[in-house]
Each structure stands twice: as structure tokens, then as C-alpha cells.
Amino acid sequence: TAARWRTRCRELGIGEIHLAFTLAFDSFVPRDIGFDAAIEFPPNNVVARDITAQVKRLDPNFAGRVHDWRSLAAAPPMLPDDAGTLHRGVCTDWDNEARRAGRGRVFMHAAPRR
């Protein structure tokens, strides 16, 4: 697919393009699939400290996870240094409980000053 896009853009006179993909669920090395870079999509593919057991639950049936946002903000890059260009992502807040009722993933302790 990457080679096809590059060829077509050259044919149309656009020239060389910079191809990047989002690390939403899977993790690939950009050059292995013909891309120039990867873009982080936190909180996916980032390990964050699980604090579910430490949080008072308002709903006793909640089966989701609660994480400490501070550990997410301090997480190292999602790709090794030699994997190619990585455009870092920012996650200022996350709560998908509305979409995944009773099984959401929530991040606590987010603050603009951090």
C-alpha cells in the first residue's frame, strides 16, 4: 500500500510524500511496512499504572480499569530508538466508560500543569 501511494503521488506531480501511521492497536516498525514514521495514540499501547483496587467505586458492578494518568504522561516512547521516526502523542484525559458501559478505561489525576 505504501509503495502504491508513493508511486501515485509521483505520477500526479505531488512528489515525495511522508507516510505515517497511527499506533492505535498494533505496533509495527515504520520502515518494515514502507512508512516513514509512526504516530503514538495514547493511551493505546502504553503501559500505565493500574489503580483500580485503590479507587472507591460508585458502581459495584464496574468491571473496567482505572489508571494513574501521571504514569501515562511519564511513559517512555512506544517504539525503540532504532525503529525510525516516532511522532509522540499526547493524552490529556481519557474515559471511555460512556462507550464501554461498565467496562471502560479511565485515567485519574490528569492536570494541565503536569
From TrEMBL:
The answer, when asked if Transferase is one of the entry's keywords, is yes
Q: Name one Pfam family in it.
A: Glyco_tran_WbsX
One GO MF annotation is: transferase activity
Which keywords belong to this entry?
Answer: Transferase
**Quick check: keyword Transferase in the entry?**
yes
Protein's name in the database: Glycosyl transferase
The organism of origin for this protein: mine drainage metagenome
From which lineage does this chain's organism come?
Answer: unclassified sequences, metagenomes, ecological metagenomes
